[in-house]
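ARCHIVE CARD
CATEGORY: sequence design from structure
SOURCE FIELD: tokenized fold
FIELD CONTENT:
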């Protein structure tokens, strides 16, 4: 597993997030075996911690095999976000989700899907529904498994 830290956290306007970013890396290491058990993704996925604009807590960038995580949220939201993005990594790896460059649209199980122009449309995309549900289940299972561990 590879970890990288945004320049803005290392040296810039977000230096105050360095300890939060280090905590995110600790959580990824702690849950690594659980992530690998629950989700099918490549071992060379990179985890990049950086402030993410808007109300998004993270991204998965398939071309780079990179999960980007915002460190400004608590442990539950961060764990949920990492799991959510790993579901997307799995979806791409399995070929269920892809990007059609010519149509500039996502492809889910062979069908083109237009971009969601509203938050409601975005949340109703089938790959997002799956990622939310599976991430929530992962977090719940981890709470049960590690009930004595601090979040």
């Amino acid at each position: 597993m590879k970890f990288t830290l945004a320049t803005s956290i290392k040296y810039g306007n977000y230096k105050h997030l360095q300890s939060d970013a280090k905590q995110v890396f600790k959580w990824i290491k702690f849950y690594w075996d659980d992530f690998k058990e629950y989700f099918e993704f490549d071992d060379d996925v990179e985890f990049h911690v950086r402030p993410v604009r808007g109300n998004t807590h993270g991204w998965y960038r398939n071309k780079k095999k990179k999960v980007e995580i915002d460190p400004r949220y608590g442990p539950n939201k961060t764990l949920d976000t990492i799991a959510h993005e790993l579901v997307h990594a799995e979806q791409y790896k399995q070929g269920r989700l892809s990007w059609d460059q010519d149509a500039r649209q996502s492809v889910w199980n062979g069908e083109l899907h237009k971009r969601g122009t509203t938050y409601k449309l975005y949340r109703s995309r089938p790959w997002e529904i799956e990622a939310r549900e599976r991430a929530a289940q992962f977090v719940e299972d981890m709470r049960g498994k590690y009930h004595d561990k601090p979040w």
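CARD ANNOTATION: The CA atoms of residues 42 and 93 lie 8 Å apart. The helical segments are 7-10, 18-38, 75-94, 119-123, 126-145.
SHELF: design records, drawer C
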